[in-house]
Amino acid sequence: MKRAIWAGAVLALTGAALAAQPAGDGPRYVNGTNLVRPTEYREWVFLGSGIDMTYQAPEASKSRQSFSNVYVNPSAYRAFMQSGKWPDRSVFVLEIRAAGSGGAINGNTSARYQTDLVVLEAEVKDSRFPDGWAFFDFGQVENLRDAAEPLGGERVARCIECHTKHTAVERTFVQFYPTLLEVARRMGTVKPGH
Ligand code: HEC
Predict the structure, then answer these.
(1) 135 touches ligand 1 (CB under 6 Å)
(2) Ligand 1 center to residue 8 CA distance, Å?
(3) Which parts of the chain sit beneath pLDDT 50?
(4) Residue nearest to atom 41 of ligand 1 (CA)
């Protein structure tokens, strides 16, 4: 009996904690602004994949090739498809995976395919941040954090600079997500120069 009461209390508490988060598939936070690592992002919408799009000099990526996969929460994707703009509470996940070789069935030695997860990063558009956007690093795969604080200082300055100067739509690299680029062009939301 006692045990049943405890179980009930735990359920009620968990329910209360979840209820404190806004409904939907948008970002979830602890301590106000620490982003909870989305565990279900592989069920989200896949925007695109690049190879050797890493931020190092091209020579560095030659020795260790990698793929980047980008996902967005489904409600943000649907809003973008209607407007060519990202709604408040959009979450983007950048998954870096190592590139494998030597397993192509046609014997092509230059063929590459995705293997182990290496790094997981994220970006949100959310009016709770003064700038409207925030960047997060969940770390390397050996010890991925369950929640990450918004990056600050020098580290975020790099993210912001590149994601402002070189992005086709708002702070995102829509120029590399072909089906979205088409929509943004139609809606007139692509920045000049793209
Ligand atoms: C030198 C440029 C550069 C810097 C610095 C940079 N990024 Fe990116 N980022 C890119 C490019 C290019 C893409 C396009 C996707 C890819 O890599 O294939 C991208 C894509 C992303 C995406 C997917 C959504 C989108 O914006 O298109 C996330 C999330 C992301 N970056 C997070 C970060 C974080 C976090 C930082 C800082 C720690 C960062 N980036 C710093 C170039 C940069």
Answers:
(1) yes
(2) 44
(3) 1, 10
(4) 159
